[in-house]
Structure formats: structure tokens, C-alpha cells
């Protein structure tokens, strides 16, 4: 399985996407490696872990400790720091989307 993922990331035909794709979209049966939506890995991972629990499967569900700490810090900041308001963070002008004024 590991060779398929390495081949995939470097764009080889032996990879899981036959030479097409990118590392943000890495997926194979029973492996949810990434997602094209920035930040979507956390809820996706939580859903996979919850599904394993409900199905009674003893499967490995893991999140990097560094990422976990960043998530906790971001949630803590968003819920306790009065400035900037959470609404401002959600509509921040620096994003991969056009500014909110353009699309509304």
C-alpha cells in the first residue's frame, strides 16, 4: 500500500490515481488521507473514528499531535478572545475565496 501512495504523490502511473491527482486528494479503500477543502481533515477524521466506533471496528484512527494542538488553540482563541470577533475571522479578507464584499 505504501508504494502506491509514494507513486501517487510523485505522479507515477503505479500510484492510486494512475499518475493524476495531488497529495491533498489522497484516498484509497480504508485510507482517508486528505481533502481538497482546507481544514476538512478534522471533521472527516472525526466522522471516520465515530463510524469505526459505531460499527465496533478496532481500527486505527489517528491525528497528528501538532495538528491537534493547533485545533485546540484555534478553538480556544475563537471562543474566548473578544477581538477580533468570530464573525470577522469567518469573513476574513485573506482567504482562498474572493472578499466577502464581492460575492454578497
Task: Tell me what the structure shows.
The protein is mainly alpha-helical. It has two domains: 48 residues, no CATH class; 31 residues, no CATH class. The chain is 45% helix and 4% strand. It has a two-stranded antiparallel sheet. The mean pLDDT is 68.
SSE topology sketch:
Elements: H1 2-9, E1 27-28, E2 31-32, H2 41-54, H3 65-80, H4 86-90, H5 100-103
Antiparallel strand pairs: 1-2
Domain Dehydrogenase E1 component: 7-61
Keywords: Oxidoreductase, Thiamine pyrophosphate, Transit peptide
Organism: Silurus meridionalis
In brief:
The protein has helices spanning 2-9, 41-54, 65-80, 86-90, 100-103, and strands at 27-28, 31-32.
Any idea how many domains? Answer: 2
Cα distance spanning the termini: 45 Å
Mean pLDDT across every amino acid position: 68
- List the total number of helices: 5
Structural class: mainly alpha
Strand content: under 5%
Main beta sheet: strand number and arrangement? 2 strands, antiparallel
Domain Dehydrogenase E1 component: 7-61
GO molecular function: pyruvate dehydrogenase (acetyl-transferring) activity
Cofactor: thiamine diphosphate
Protein name: Dehydrogenase E1 component domain-containing protein
How would you describe this structure in keywords?
single chain; 104 residues; 2 domains; two-stranded antiparallel sheet; 4% strand; extended; transit peptide; THDP-binding; oxidoreductase; pyruvate dehydrogenase (acetyl-transferring) activity; thiamine pyrophosphate
Amino acid at each position: 500500500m505504501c508504494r502506491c501512495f509514494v507513486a501517487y504523490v510523485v505522479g507515477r502511473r503505479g500510484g492510486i490515481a494512475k499518475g493524476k491527482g495531488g497529495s491533498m486528494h489522497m484516498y484509497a479503500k480504508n485510507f482517508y488521507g486528505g481533502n481538497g477543502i482546507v481544514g476538512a481533515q478534522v471533521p472527516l477524521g472525526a466522522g471516520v473514528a465515530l463510524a469505526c466506533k459505531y460499527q465496533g471496528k478496532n481500527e486505527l484512527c489517528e491525528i497528528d499531535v501538532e495538528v491537534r494542538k493547533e485545533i485546540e488553540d484555534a478553538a480556544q482563541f475563537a471562543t474566548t478572545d473578544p477581538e477580533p470577533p468570530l464573525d470577522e475571522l469567518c469573513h476574513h479578507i485573506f482567504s482562498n475565496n474572493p472578499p466577502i464584499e464581492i460575492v454578497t
